[in-house]
């Protein structure tokens, strides 16, 4: 390489990131809005709808996944469209999904979940705690399965980081939504309690 032409940090680190943002509101029926989204920087996104849920799927170049997601959120919301969450259709699994992924019966998986087979302490579901439609995060289940002796591929560093970033962003978006309906007094108390909890990031 000729002298004085060293690669910049950006040239070394830039990567392509694919992700989907769930949107609040119809973005397909308004051509002016679609043009505004394009002009805001979302020319690397495809907009669509599934069962009444609108989304933007991005293929974005950035130094890091967090940068890719947050720039996309800022661009979308600059047009007045609200971002609800980062979608990850492969992360959430049912008990039936787990059974299929590990090649065992649903009854075997039920026993793992109940702690009657395996090392116990199966990950807690993240939704529908008291129903048959419970959902688990696959990365947490996969970690447990490895401790139980199953051969589950380890995620690559980039994939593992991406899952963590998406979870944090979704937490921030959910907190923003919940925060907006709290009374001023409840907001004040919550800020105080968060400051007292050292392992909770002070994001409010």
Number of helices: 8
Overall shape:
globular
Please give the number of β-strands: 6
Can you give the helix content as a percent range? 40-55%
DSSP strand (E) fraction? 15-25%
Decide which structural class fits the backbone: alpha+beta
Please give the radius of gyration in angstroms: 21 Å
Instruction: Provide the low-confidence segments as ranges.
Output: 1-12
Average residue pLDDT: 83
H and E string: HEHEEHEEHHEHHH
Walk across the major sheet and give the strand order: 2-3-1-4
The major pleated sheet works out as: 4 strands, antiparallel
Ends apart, CA distance between termini: 48 Å
In short:
With 204 residues, this protein is of the alpha+beta class. The chain contains 8 helices and 6 strands.
Provide keyphrases for this structure:
204 residues, alpha+beta, 8 helices, 6 strands, globular
Structure overview:
This protein is an alpha+beta fold and 204 residues long. 45% of the residues lie in helices and 18% in strands. It has eight helices and six strands; from the N terminus they run αβαββαββααβααα. It has helices at 9-13, 31-40, 65-77, 95-102, 106-114, 138-147, 157-179, 184-196; strands at residues 15-24, 45-50, 53-62, 82-87, 92-93, 136-137. The strands form two sheets. It has a four-stranded antiparallel β-sheet, with helices on one face. Strand 2 and strand 3 (53-62) form a beta hairpin. Helix 3 (65-77) runs parallel beside helix 7 (157-179). The longest helix is centred in the last third of the chain and has 23 residues, at 157-179. The protein is globular. The model is unreliable at 1-12 (pLDDT under 50).
């Amino acid at each position: 390489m000729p002298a004085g032409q060293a690669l910049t940090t950006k040239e070394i680190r830039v990567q392509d990131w694919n992700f989907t943002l769930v949107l609040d509101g119809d973005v397909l029926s308004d051509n002016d809005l679609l043009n505004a989204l394009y002009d805001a920087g979302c020319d690397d996104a495809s907009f669509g709808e599934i069962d009444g849920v609108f989304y933007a799927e991005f293929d974005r170049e950035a130094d890091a996944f967090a940068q890719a997601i947050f720039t996309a959120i800022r661009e979308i919301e600059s047009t007045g469209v609200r971002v609800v969450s980062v979608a990850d259709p492969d992360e959430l699994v049912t008990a039936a999904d787990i059974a299929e992924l590990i090649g065992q019966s649903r009854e075997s998986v039920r026993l793992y979940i109940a702690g009657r087979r395996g090392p116990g302490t199966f990950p807690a579901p993240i939704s529908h705690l008291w129903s048959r439609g419970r959902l688990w995060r696959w990365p947490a289940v996969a970690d447990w399965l490895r401790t139980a002796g199953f051969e589950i591929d380890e995620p690559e560093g980039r994939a593992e980081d991406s899952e963590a970033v998406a979870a944090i962003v979704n937490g921030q978006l959910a907190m923003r939504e919940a925060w907006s309906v709290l009374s001023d007094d409840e907001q004040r108390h919550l800020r105080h309690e968060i400051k007292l909890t050292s392992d909770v990031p002070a994001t409010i």
